[in-house]
């Protein structure tokens, strides 16, 4: 049997270990180590260009972690991450340190439905009525006689944030929405469920699924400027960030050819900042 | 002699490390939960179903009920099947068939729960939808997915419980003229009961603690009105809102409070089982 | 139905004889018994002796078909116990095992109360009446000379008894279903001398009331309790005869060598 003294020593040792871990983490950051954290929608793009930057900056190591926009911004505020990826604007008061924002462009968000619903598009008002739960059967919109099953993302999602501000406004999402955690799960649910409608970031391939028009706009990747519903992902860093960190953010921001990741760059011709 | 002392040291260190690590785990959760209780009280969140963490409403009654409902459902569905599998694998199958069956079950334990989630999304949810006419997302689907998920773990433990019944007892029963069925019900299962109860508890723990597989098929709403309407469990909501409320945000303490509740639910079950065992022995 | 049959049998003292002809037993490809024939008069006590692995336990387990528990076993020949054709595929094994009780080498009390241990067989046979069960339990415990030691403690776990008491409990448990034949598989092998003496006393008392077959490694025990002795070696029944004759003037050289300790 373990004695009480051994027990106390063990507890003490464990707390020392926890503290030690924290100090060593701080020491590491003073070394040549950059950590990026935040929205999962940005990860494929960021990861694709990191090797190039690391090659140009020998000895630097970059770690990329998901966790969502809020977690990234929170980690940035606490000094646990150097760069936050976020596809939503931090709510007022969320960040207490001064930060710099490096916009990455636009990330279109499209409304998707299964083919059975029998309609090709929605107006802004209809979209609001559908996601707020006012319309419960597609018949009400001239579609099939199928109950509406709205699929949404959780509150931490940047896409949901865009939907809330641009489509629903002051109305909350219907409490009958099915919540899925990822783009992929939303797509799968919409494909599998007759009468389902959802929204996804247009990073994923849109197969087996109807992309609805919005107020007459057709989603066309080659004419992305005309698509009215999008998130604006950005990198955030502390205003007093070291030179290397700022350099990395500027490097990522300036990369062309990120369309394959669903991003439409701010530097591309015809882009107009929405804010 | 010296080797002996070394071995003793290693065993004591292992135990000490266990105590230390889990004390830190519990302490971290408990500190968060304590912050939460200081600000929100502990009774209001338990009696309210209004969950809107960004607005400061932390009613988690629906999640607690959801966890209990889904877990109970999963065990009700799984237990009879598991018992039958345990008897088949422990007393009926012999030789290579038995070995293969045990190996298969062991392999299936390793299937990650997200696979069960996807699989529930593409098979169970449409099935429930077709049978019920609802969306198919809800505690019923979650219960079915969980039931299937715990079957391998639960079966292996139950199978070993049945197998460890001494053959002297089985022979003693048969020699008195008991049939195989009578021996099973009056000798094998009662003798295996303590180990079966242990297996049951592990299954409860697995079901209660599961996150992603449940989240994918339960719908994710903070209500519990029907087995066929979207709802949530403590764990599925924890998973959903972890990204919304990362550590060091005010809402994160609510998640710690929820985690404490999971530990408490489990502790109550372990205590109940202990009392039942003592009752049986006395 | 079953209860009725049991009740009817109780009063009548039908003791059964055992007739074995050309019995052969294989475990897979290995022959365990070869061409064993013997006849045991009702009420007699037969001791089976012989070196380990000679087939005496196998023989015992054929008599109540416990041999069926071995998956690869094959049995040939004929075995009759009273009216039972033991090796018949269609025989009611349950009825056979109630008639032919067995006590094992290791005391195997069930993990339940003393009362429930003894009542186990009668309950499964359909006895429901509490009064009747109590009567059966008391009778059986008295027959196995355990009653005075456990009266008033019947609700205690059988595991609290000493090894010798446990073995007498197993005797009582076997007696509770009113058998006519008792098979004893080295019943004192794991007991101390005092407990052994008590079991031997019981066997002597039971003479004439039950036909008994006892496997033993203890030659003095065989000499003390049995009427007849059968010597087995490598699956063969070498010699069988009255106990006194076998111990004083064995007919076979192998028997003599075994009895005088010059064996192998």
Describe the model.
The complex is a heterotrimer of chains A (275), B (282) and C (264). Chain A is α/β, with parallel strands linked by helices and 275 residues long. Chain A contains seven helices and 13 strands. In chain A, the strands form three sheets. In chain A, strands 5, 7, 8, 9, 10 and 12 form a six-stranded mixed β-sheet that branches. In chain A, strand 7, helix 5 and strand 8 form a beta-alpha-beta unit. Chain A is globular and about 70 Å long. Chain A starts with a helix and ends in a 21-residue tail after the last helix. The relative contact order of chain A is 0.18. Chain B has two domains: 46 residues; 221 residues, MetI-like fold, CATH 1.10.3720. Chain B has eleven helices and two strands, in the order ααββααααααααα. The mean pLDDT of chain B is 89. By secondary structure, chain C is α/β, with parallel strands linked by helices. Chain C has one domain: P-loop containing nucleotide triphosphate hydrolases (Rossmann fold). Chain C is built from eleven helices and ten strands. In chain C, the strands form two sheets. A six-stranded mixed β-sheet of chain C has the order 6-7-8-3-9-10, sandwiched between helices. In chain C, helix 4 runs parallel beside helix 7. The termini of chain C are far apart. The chains are: A alpha/beta (275), B mainly alpha (282), C alpha/beta (264). Chains in contact: A-B, B-C. At the A-B interface, helix 1, helix 3, strand 8 and helix 6 of A face helix 1, helix 5, helix 9 and helix 10 of B.
In short:
The complex is a heterotrimer of chains A (275), B (282) and C (264). With 282 residues, chain B is mainly alpha-helical.
Keywords:
heterotrimer; A: 275 residues; 2 domains; six-stranded mixed beta sheet; five-stranded mixed beta sheet; 7 helices; globular; C: 264 residues; alpha/beta; Rossmann fold; disordered N terminus
């Amino acid at each position: 049997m373990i004695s009480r003294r051994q027990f106390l020593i063990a507890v003490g040792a464990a707390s020392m270990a926890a503290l030690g871990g924290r100090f060593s983490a701080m020491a590491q950051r003073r070394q040549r180590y950059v950590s990026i954290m935040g929205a999962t929608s940005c990860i494929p793009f960021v990861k694709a260009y990191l090797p190039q930057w690391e090659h140009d900056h020998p000895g630097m190591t970059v770690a990329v972690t998901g966790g969502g926009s809020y977690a990234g911004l929170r980690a940035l505020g606490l000094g646990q991450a150097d760069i936050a990826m976020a596809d939503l604007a931090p709510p007022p008061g969320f960040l207490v340190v001064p930060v710099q924002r490096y916009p990455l462009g636009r990330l279109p968000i499209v409304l998707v439905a299964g083919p059975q619903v029998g309609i090709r598009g929605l107006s802004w008002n209809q979209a609001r009525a559908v996601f707020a739960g006012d319309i419960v059967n597609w018949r009400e919109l001239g579609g099939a006689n199928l109950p509406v099953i709205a699929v949404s993302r959780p509150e931490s999602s940047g896409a949901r944030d865009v939907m809330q501000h641009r489509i629903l406004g002051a109305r909350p999402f219907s409490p009958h929405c099915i919540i899925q955690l990822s783009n992929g799960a939303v797509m799968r649910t919409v494909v599998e469920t007759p009468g389902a409608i959802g929204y996804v970031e247009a990073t994923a391939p849109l197969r087996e699924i109807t992309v609805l028009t919005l107020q007459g706009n057709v989603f066309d990747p080659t004419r992305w400027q005309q698509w009215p519903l999008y998130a604006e992902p950005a990198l955030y860093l502390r205003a007093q960030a070291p030179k290397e960190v700022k350099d990395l953010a500027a490097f990522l921001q300036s990369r062309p050819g990120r369309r394959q990741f669903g991003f439409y760059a701010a530097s591309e011709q015809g882009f107009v900042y929405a804010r | 002699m010296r080797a002996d002392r070394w071995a003793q040291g290693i065993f004591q260190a292992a135990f000490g490390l266990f105590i230390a690590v889990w004390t830190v785990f519990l302490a971290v959760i408990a500190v968060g939960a304590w912050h939460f209780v200081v600000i929100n009280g502990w009774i209001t969140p338990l009696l309210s179903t209004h969950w809107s963490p960004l607005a400061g409403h932390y009613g988690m009654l629906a999640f607690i009920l959801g966890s209990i409902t889904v877990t109970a459902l999963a065990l009700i569905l799984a237990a009879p099947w598991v018992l039958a599998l345990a008897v088949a694998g422990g007393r009926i199958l012999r030789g290579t068939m038995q070995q293969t069956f045990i190996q298969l079950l062991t392999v299936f334990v390793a299937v990650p729960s997200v696979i069960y989630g996807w699989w529930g999304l593409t098979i169970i949810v449409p099935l429930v939808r077709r049978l019920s006419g609802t969306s198919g997302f809800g505690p019923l689907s979650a219960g079915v997915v969980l039931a299937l998920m715990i079957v391998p773990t639960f079966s292996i433990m139950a199978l070993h419980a049945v197998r460890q019944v001494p053959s002297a007892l089985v022979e003693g029963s048969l020699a008195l003229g008991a049939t195989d069925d009578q021996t099973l019900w009056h000798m094998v299962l009662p003798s295996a009961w303590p180990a079966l109860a242990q297996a049951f508890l592990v299954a409860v723990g697995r079901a209660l603690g599961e996150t992603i597989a449940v989240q994918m098929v339960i719908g994710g709403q903070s209500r519990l009105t029907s087995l066929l309407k979207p709802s949530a469990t403590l764990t599925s909501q924890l998973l959903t809102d972890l990204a919304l409320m990362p550590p060091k945000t005010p809402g994160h303490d609510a998640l710690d409070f929820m985690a404490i509740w999971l530990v408490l639910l489990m502790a109550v079950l372990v205590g109940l089982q202990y009392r039942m065992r003592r009752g049986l022995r006395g | 139905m079953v209860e009725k049959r049991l009740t009817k049998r109780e009063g009548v003292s039908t003791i059964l004889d055992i007739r074995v002809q050309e019995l052969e037993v294989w475990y897979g490809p290995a022959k365990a018994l070869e061409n064993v024939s013997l006849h045991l008069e009702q009420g007699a006590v037969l001791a089976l002796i012989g070196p380990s692995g000679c087939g005496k336990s196998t023989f015992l387990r054929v008599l109540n078909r416990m041999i069926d528990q071995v998956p690869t076993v094959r049995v040939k020949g004929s075995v009759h116990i009273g009216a039972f054709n033991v090796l018949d595929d269609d025989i009611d094994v349950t009825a056979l095992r109630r008639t032919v009780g067995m006590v094992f080498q290791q005391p195997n009390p069930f993990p339940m109360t003393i009362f429930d241990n003894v009542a186990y067989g009668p309950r499964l046979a359909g006895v429901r009446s509490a009064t009747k069960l109590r009567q059966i339990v008391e009778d059986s415990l008295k027959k196995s000379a355990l009653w005075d030691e456990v009266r008033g403690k019947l609700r205690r776990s059988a595991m609290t008894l000493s090894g010798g008491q446990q073995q007498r409990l197993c005797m009582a448990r076997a007696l509770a279903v009113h058998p006519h034949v008792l098979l004893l598989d080295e019943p004192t092998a794991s007991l101390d001398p005092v407990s052994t003496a008590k079991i031997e006393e019981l066997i002597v008392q039971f003479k004439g009331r039950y036909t008994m077959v006892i496997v033993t490694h203890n030659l003095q025990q065989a000499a003390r309790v049995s009427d007849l002795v059968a010597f087995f070696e490598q699956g063969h029944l070498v010699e069988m005869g009255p106990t006194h004759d076998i111990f004083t003037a064995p007919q076979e050289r192998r028997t003599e060598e075994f009895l005088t300790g010059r064996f192998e």
